[in-house]
Amino acid sequence: MKISDFTLPSCVEEAQACMKSAGDSAFFLAGGTSIRFLKETAEEKVAIDVSKLPFVGIVNEDSAYEIGSLTRINDLMKYKGEGWVLDRVAKLVATQQIRNMSTVGGNIARIFYWSDFPVALMALDAEISIKGNEWFTVDADTYFDKQPIQKLINGNIIGFIEIPEITKGKGFAYHKETRTYSAFSTLNVAVYVSSDDDGVIENVRIVIGACTPFPVRLKNVETQLIGKKISELNFDKLSLTEVEKMSIVPKEGMTKIYCRHLVKTKVKDVLLQAVAEAKGDCHE
Amino acid sequence: MNKKLINLVVNGEEKEFSILPNEKLLEVLRREGYKGTKFGCGEGSCGSCTILLEGKPVYSCTMFAFQAAGKKIETIEGVGTAKNPHVIQRALIDQGAVQCGFCMPGIILSAKSMFEENSDPDEEYIRTHMDGNLCRCTGYEKILTALENVAAVNK
């Protein structure tokens, strides 16, 4: 793809009108850091730079965080708030310069296997608000079930992402496996746990990515944990046979056998961290 | 492909540049004489093309020039002079932290933005903030020491 022209709309309606009039020959550009990973073709497109649209910032309301899609990754890293956990993911993304350029919306508009936020946001059961002709909301499982860019057609644009606060009784942990510092992921694991006042697990979401084309939930593992008392969990008894049946696409020269072993090991590690936080052992 | 005009504020001076839509900011800056901004990897890994955009370090090789339209840019040409080096440049020289020097414009600009954000960073803060700048000569220790010396002076 080559950029043949650009526009710098100052409001959502203007950006959508540009997209509707240009059709397939235009695309929305936010941070622009992933452009170089798209297939090189002679196809020419008009870039609609959406960075001036008002989808910026983080708001804490009703035990949830609403994040503007054009919020830079570095701002997610530096934000401080009760039960805010995306800083744990943001600090693992690439380098300072990339974190200053990339936006959270750009990170989830098109999934690359190494993308960090799709895995984390799916574990957090995020809700993604999209502006089409009207606003509509998509849950994370639906949003990430295939390439999200397919939902972003006809001028549809991601506006906001909502995630829960991780407060008492809840836990979240994220792990990114790379070969070297700031390299692309070979495995991402995210776990969200919530428990009731008696310490019984009400909800758990375990998501892996990078070694799979799209983020995948380990639903059988989740089922084994729901209804169990956090204080009585025995991870040695946890069955991870689901991982054996999964479609794995290893990266960086890893074998499938090693990759499955890595998934099983890291899922348990990350579960332990999330459960420890839900128990109050290391609540940040 | 038609050229378009954009305005940039480079090192405090408002300027108009004629750019092609697919031109990277690095290409435009170098063509316009800001040769201190280096072309290293060209893919957003090495940091030698680092500039400050609205005070924050970004890779100019990965960014289209139009994305900077109307914004403030700082290049190494705006930081100190040979006769009157910036405090960061002085510290790097004093520590013997410069060998081939190719990475230095990017390192100095990243460090400058760091000290503007936090005048007294600890080692972890420095390492995190400088993680996007590679140096293939020094092994980083002297650079780190030089920046810690700047922090110590700031205390």
CATH superfamily placement of the largest domain in chain B:
Beta-grasp domain
The CATH architecture assignment of the largest domain in chain A turns out to be 2-Layer Sandwich
Q: Sketch the major β-sheet of chain B.
A: 5 strands, mixed
The total count of helices of chain A amounts to 10
Number of domains of chain B: 2
Strand content of chain A: 25-35%
Spans where pLDDT lies below 50 across 5 or more residues of chain B: none
Range of helix content of chain B: 25-40%
CATH superfamily grouping of the largest domain in chain A: CO dehydrogenase flavoprotein, C-terminal domain
The string of secondary-structure elements of chain A, in order, is EHEEEEHHHHHEEHEEEEEHHH
Describe the protein:
The complex is a heterodimer of chains A (284) and B (155). Chain A is α+β, with helices and mostly antiparallel strands. Chain A has 3 domains: 2-49, Uridine Diphospho-n-acetylenolpyruvylglucosamine Reductase, domain 2 (2-Layer Sandwich), CATH 3.30.43; 58-164, Uridine Diphospho-n-acetylenolpyruvylglucosamine Reductase, domain 3, CATH 3.30.465; 170-279, 2-Layer Sandwich (Enolase-like, domain 1), CATH 3.30.390.50. Chain A has 10 helices and 12 strands. Chain A has helices spanning 12-22, 73-78, 86-90, 96-101, 104-109, 117-123, 140-143, 219-225, 241-245, 256-279, and strands at 2-7, 26-29, 44-49, 58-61, 64-68, 127-131, 135-139, 157-164, 170-178, 185-195, 201-209, 216-217. The N and C termini of chain A lie far apart (44 Å). The model of chain A has no long low-confidence stretch (mean pLDDT 93). By secondary structure, chain B is of the alpha+beta class. Chain B has a 5-stranded mixed beta sheet with strand order 2-1-5-3-4, with helices on one face. At the A-B interface, strand 1 and helix 4 of A face strand 4 of B.
